[in-house]
Amino acid sequence: MDIEKRHASDYYEGFLVYSGEYYSAYFHAETKGLSSVNDYFECCDDVTQASLLFLVKRIADTGRIYDETKFRIEDRQNKIYCFKPKKERFFCFFFTGKKIIITSAYTKKRQKFDRNELRKAIRIRNKYFVV
């Protein structure tokens, strides 16, 4: 088995965002001490950080976010979802053990979402699942 795939899921454990009744949410980490999506989050303004944390807490505590303008599926085939706190987008997926892994983030600048960022989220997700 590829070492990268075997150990990818170990990396997020140090980057817990919030643990609720239904889910625990984590930032994906490239290594045990490095998470570029966490770094991106840390560079966001206080309002964006609070908005993302509110959305993460809502889904973790209740199991669902009904407002599609704040959370929706972006790629049905690969099961990639997106938190939309403000103009920032945080891609994520659901992982075994009732975990949500937040893979990557970017600032939306156009009407449509960034396909390159979606492909990045899919690549990260694939590291968590043995094909």
How would you describe the overall organization of this protein?
This protein is α+β, with helices and mostly antiparallel strands and 131 residues long. It has one domain: YaeB-like fold (2-Layer Sandwich), CATH 3.30.2310. 37% of the residues lie in helices and 26% in strands. It is built from four helices and six strands, in the order H-E-E-H-H-E-E-E-E-H. It has helices at 3-11, 36-43, 46-62, 115-128; strands at 16-19, 24-27, 71-75, 80-83, 88-95, 99-107. Strands 1-2-6-5-4-3 form a six-stranded mixed beta sheet. Strand 1 (16-19) and strand 2 form a beta hairpin. Mean pLDDT is 89; it is low at 1-6.
Distance between the first and last residues' Cα: 10 Å
CATH topology: YaeB-like fold
CATH homologous superfamily heading: RelE-like
> So what's the overall shape?
globular
CATH architectural group: 2-Layer Sandwich
Query: How many helical elements?
Result: 4
Radius of gyration of CA atoms, rounded to a whole number = 14 Å
Order of helices and strands: HEEHHEEEEH
> Main sheet, how many strands, which sense, barrel?
6 strands, mixed
Structural class: alpha+beta
What is the number of beta strands? 6
* Low-confidence residue ranges: 1-6
In short:
37% of the residues lie in helices and 26% in strands.
